[in-house]
Amino acid sequence: MAQSPTTFYSASAGSGKTYTLAQDYLTLLFKNSYSNGYRKILAVTFTNKAVGEMKERILEYLYKFTFEELEDSVKGIATHIQNETGLNGEQFRKKAQAIFNQLLHDYSAFDIVTIDSFNHRILRTFAKDIDLPDNFEVELDSKRLISKAIHNLIARAGKDKKLTQLLVDFSILKIEEGKSWDIEYDLQDIAKLILNENHYPYLKQLKGKEVEDFLRFRESLYKKINTTQKQLAEKAKALVELSQNSNIDPTDFKGGSRSIFNTVIKVASEDFSVGLDTASVRDLAAGDLYPKGKSQDIKDRIDQIAGEIQSFAIQYKENMGAVLFYKNIASSLTPLSLLNELLHEIDQIKINEQKVPIYEFNALLAEQIKDQPAPFIYERLGERYRHYFIDEFQDTSRMQWENLSPLIENELQQQRENQVPGTLMLVGDAKQSIYRFRGGDADQFLRLLATPDLFMLPKKEETLAFNWRSYDHIIDFNNQFFDSYGDHLSSDVYKTLYKEYLKQETRSKEGGFIQIDFIEKDFEAPYEEDDYASVYPYHVHQQVLKAQASGFSLGEICVLVRANKDGHEIAKYLVSQDMRVVSGDSLLVHASHKVQLLVSLMKMIQAPDQQQPRFEFLMAYTKVFQLEDIHSFVTAYLHESLQALGEKLMGWEEEDLGSAFAKAALFQATEHVAESLGLFKEQDTRLQSFMEFLFEYSTGYEVSLSGFIEHWELKMDKLSVPAAADADAVQIMTIHKSKGLEFPVVIVPHCDKKLDEARNPTGWVEVNETEYEGFDQVYISLKKENEHYPELAPEVYAQHLAKAEMDQINTLYVAFTRAREQLYISAIETTSKTASYATLLKEFVQNKGLELKSGNGFQTAEIGDVARKSEVTKPEQSEMLKEYKIHLDKERLTISTRRGLLWASGASEAIQKGNVLHEYLSLIQFSIDYNEVSHKIDRDFSLSKAEQKEMKAMISSVIYHPDLIAYFKEGIKVLNEQPILLPSGQRLIPDRVVMINDCAVVMDYKTGAVLDKHKSQVNEYANLLESMNIKVVEKVLIYTDTLEIVKWNG
């Protein structure tokens, strides 16, 4: 561990960041005199997945440190810790055992957490101080909150005259822009500002404004526009008259028949369409007024009025720059005023529902808590941290850092006797900052990196120089390409980043292959159907075939795209070519025909007289049951009654569809319909996910059919099922989702973006409130004309361009560095001189002297040997325990809460506790799932706080038990509570079956005394699996109340 209190790790892609974090964390644990040193450490990262991975890594190391013979995988880190602490082998092993045991029994104090969960803890502690309800809930679904606010806002139309006028104005504005008058989509779009904390200080000030303030401001802007243009027109008219009096014809000026003086004539006629960057305006402003060949007499006459012309042109640029600025501001005022009203609606919903949106955490802390003395905050938290780890610091927002830094500074500046000094470890890589749209601030990381100290204390900077992920050619290509790309960045700071913090060393993994394809602009892909927007789906298919031919399986290939729609097209084509694909679309729950059938049925019941939902139901039916004569089927049933549909399609004699949903709860009615349709005969993960989604809705919302349909349509685009880790299928995902992952083969199509491209960029400009009706900042669209605006707008635009360039290069860097062994890149050939991915790739190929081979509609440059270098590993296939059938009980269960039953007295205590523990253990496949299950327990209000803590401790004791930890390690195949139905109808349900190397381990959880009948039960499960040709190598009984483990093989 570094002697300086602060260590900055600059960790490029594949540089072993997690290993370094774990090493430094463990070193601190071993340096501490006590085995509970973890209580003084706070490690913060950004996702639950990262939290789980880090915790699992720490525990795995500690467990392996307890072996007398250390495994090769931990020898390096063990040696480092022993060198830092002076412990000998036996002392080291004993200390590891003590820390490991202590952690398992004190798991809730193992504070590797997301920054949101830490903020949540602070907010809970200070809830009363900042007027939050004691029992406030965290609103994770920001989209739901915003949609409800928009719905409430629109519902006020017709009742609130000023708001109604705003809504009408907004609709008219959209129509004038050639868009739909429907404003809901645009309100959703501008409401995204609420979710990005970079906009928070501006929106906060707007909340003090009323509708009248916006209307008054807009009126004043239009007055300025009219006044300015009228003045310009009057001056232009005077100039035209002056030229006429001077006997100068417009054709005497430069341009002849296309005279530059026509600009003045247009303005005189109140035509202000002449652009400020046109050649005529530039020449007029520069005094370049006539061609060299003109007679001296004409030149002399023009020279006499040249000063007035030049002055007018300069004034035109300046005044029209202001006019464009005013128009830009005015166009945003109506949406902003509606956004302001939306913020008030959200505030009201928060009060009514007693919820705090997660996006407000940082702002609440910044406003209410960060100025409290650090000792006071620690006292209220009940913890005092001495050591801080912040991972992915490049994605930390400015507000997040400002909230954490007082706590950190307080500890770093204090020295305590006989204690390890306070420390801070920051890990990040500004080249991988791709979340600026969520508030991530890479500039903050770069600023702190550039300063010689932090909190007036020296800091140490370390660069993780080696790339442990990729093969040599991949590393060298990325070093050289992004070094040359960096030369094209306009910001010197960002140039320095890609010059000084780019180059990575190789680790002698010789080989690797890169293919760069430039597709001919007029190339037409041989699609059978003309419904693909580009040639990329066809071209990606060719690249996949090449990777397969070089020895890679489909499951080792990942296609990275910028937009989901691009991924959808590629997935669609690959599937049409009989390739297995795993993508966001293929995993979406609503892509299931069975789910579509149930949802369309609900819509049909809600609106029985409408034809569209009935048609959708019948079409979904034909897909589920693979009917061939679709036309005849739809025609036959389109006009049938709900009762007739129930009789003919579901075999109901006394029920009809409408009454089924009227008489039963929504979940039970849907379950009954699905059973009647036979939808449960085969396992369908997406149908199961839909039913779980419906159940969660039924328990968490005011239940109605219309309410669920609205809730479903709000959520359906995000609801998906996880992909099987071992699926032999091409993965397709966005570059943003790939961050932190790696793949043997990466394919990156659509490399055509401009270097400063951004989608509808906007920004805030500070202005003088006395000149702008009390507004001290204005919201504008960012575009090239901003360069001519007054105030600070040109500077804001320049900053935007630099950041947009950074976003683009970082996105490409993340994509290219996901590859371990092969990287395929493709772009459409371009002759444009505008800097883009394609032009820089072509420039790179030419500068490196790489040979371009032509053929099949594209040119190709290759680096390295395409033949596979890595060992071929056979992917393990998931074993499915197939059921003979699934049936649902006709008699519905009565559900009661557990409060009052738990932790009772006598024998029932162990039984009830075991049942609840069993329920939560069934949710855990791998130890990495503990964090999510822990959050579920925290939200289980049938348990007291003490019971929740005990439950979490019991679970961690099971999954991290030295004799069981191997069965909860990520990467194995797990089947929890998978029912097996015998031909007799009997259901056997083993608690947990773990598949390792095509063999099974059968596990069952029990409480109480060890009984022979428990063994008999597990043996019965094992015998059944053996009859299905699944070899059982071990049987395990886990007594959760005593942590007694019974294993046997016979």
Q: How would you describe this structure in keywords?
A:
alpha/beta, Rossmann fold, 1050 residues, 5 domains
Quick summary:
With 1050 residues, the chain is an alpha/beta fold.
Topology:
Elements: E1 6-11, H1 17-31, E2 41-45, H2 48-65, H3 72-85, H4 89-105, E3 112-114, H5 115-125, E4 137-139, H6 142-155, H7 161-176, H8 184-190, H9 192-195, H10 200-206, H11 211-245, H12 262-268, H13 279-286, H14 296-353, E5 355-357, H15 361-368, H16 374-381, E6 387-390, H17 398-412, E7 423-428, H18 442-450, E8 453-454, E9 457-464, H19 472-486, H20 492-500, E10 513-519, H21 536-549, E11 557-561, H22 564-576, E12 581-583, H23 584-587, H24 593-606, H25 611-624, H26 630-637, H27 642-650, H28 657-663, H29 666-676, H30 685-700, H31 705-715, E13 730-734, H32 735-738, E14 743-748, E15 762-766, E16 777-781, H33 793-816, E17 819-828, H34 837-847, E18 853-855, E19 858-864, H35 907-921, H36 930-938, H37 945-959, E20 973-976, E21 980-981, E22 987-988, E23 992-996, E24 999-1006, H38 1012-1027, E25 1031-1039, E26 1044-1048
